[in-house]
Write a structure and sequence with these properties.
Two copies of one chain form a homodimer. By secondary structure, chain A is α/β, with parallel strands linked by helices. Chain A is about 20% helix and about 40% strand. In chain A, strands 2, 3, 4, 5, 6, 7, 8, 9 and 10 form a nine-stranded mixed beta sheet that branches. Chain A has a six-stranded mixed β-barrel with strand order 1-14-11-13-12-15. In chain A, strand 3 (about 50-55) and strand 4 (about 60-70) form a beta hairpin. The interface of A and B includes residues 94, 95, 106 and 197 of A. Chains A, B: Involved in 1,2-propanediol (1,2-PD) degradation by catalyzing the conversion of propanoyl-CoA to propanoyl-phosphate. Chains A, B: Pathway: Polyol metabolism; 1,2-propanediol degradation.
């Protein structure tokens, strides 16, 4: 077979694979990642306690929650996720940012340059973060093998159809985040899930 | 020209028109429509006062607001829209329904069979509605001439692309609502607008 014909065949097979693979959907409510040092300022005499393991290996929701205070309003019982990170990060929905009265950019986790700060309050004390507040950009976690199989790489964006009753949606601008430890899962926030009437049983299909 | 060829040409022209016409986007925050009788129970000695005309002719946001009370939480300062209607109706986002702790179906405005009720509270008194709470199904208002031009009719559903920074979305299941007095406008709720990073300057294009 000619190389050109072979390449064409490979593209066809990749397209077929993309359209077959069901991508589980994870819905992220607002949450906070903290450095160990920031955690200790909010909970000086309380160890972080695992409430529930999350789908991505090693990640967990803790028993600890804080109040986020904006200029216009506050949000109570925002959960701290673990393990501790190298930089504290607060992930909100756009609905949340309007309630708080703050302007927040849409960013991939970890991309915190020029992001706004916020005030956090626990039952023991308070903490001002100078930056680290984002609205999470939608993305798909996958292993490096899955990325190779799907013919996508880190930083690519794809379009994902999620079918539902009354509110089917195609999400464009879904960024690919492959990693050695990652399990296949598309992360949406609560606004995105609600716009698509999406539940934890929903799944997506890459259509482009 | 043969009739078949002519029909094909017409279809092509209609498809072209659809792809050219820019559909303005209206973003609906949670709001309430009341019967005159229900209004008077909440505001016995206060005339409804226009705060702002809305885009659809005759519709207005009033100065009056109430608190909605659910089993889990409440939402304050929910605006009453006018004019009065034949049946009271409360329109919430799915984010709101989770905050209130109630289960609400996605329905077109006016389609209130088997919808849940809710408690409303003004500064003067309170009122229990037996039904009428919905999450609005997304839809496009248009004149009957615009519907004819676009080759769509009442009850059809279309797919609409809304481009934006970081969060472009194709909304499927957008229902067509033609009417003599309607102006061309797609109505989304705050969850849908936030999922697409959509502002009041955004517009949609029918792609299917």
């Amino acid at each position: 077979m000619e190389e050109k014909v072979l390449q064409q065949k490979v593209r066809e097979v990749l397209k077929k694979i993309k359209s077959i693979i069901k991508i589980p959907v994870g819905i992220s409510n607002h949450h906070i990642h903290l450095t160990e040092s920031d955690y200790k300022k909010l909970f000086p005499n309380e160890e972080i306690k695992i409430k529930r393991e999350l789908n991505q290996p090693g990640e967990f929701a803790s028993e600890q929650t804080v109040t986020i205070k904006g200029t216009k309003g506050k949000i109570e019982r925002v959960r701290i996720l673990g393990p501790f990170r190298a930089h504290s990060q607060v992930e909100l929905s756009l609905t949340d940012t309007r309630k708080l009265g703050i302007k927040v950019p849409i960013r991939l986790s970890g991309n915190l340059t020029n992001t706004p700060g916020i005030d956090l309050e626990s039952k023991y004390g308070s903490l001002h973060l100078d930056d680290g507040v984002i609205v999470a950009k939608r993305h798909i976690h996958m292993s490096e093998e899955e990325a190779a199989l799907l013919g996508v790489k880190k930083g690519d964006t794809v379009s994902v159809l999620v079918n539902s009753d009354e509110r089917s949606v195609v999400f464009n601008d879904v960024e690919i985040r492959p990693g050695k430890k990652f399990k296949l899962e598309m992360h949406l926030d609560t606004d995105e899930a609600n716009a698509g009437n999406i539940s934890r049983e929903s799944f997506g299909k890459i259509i482009d």
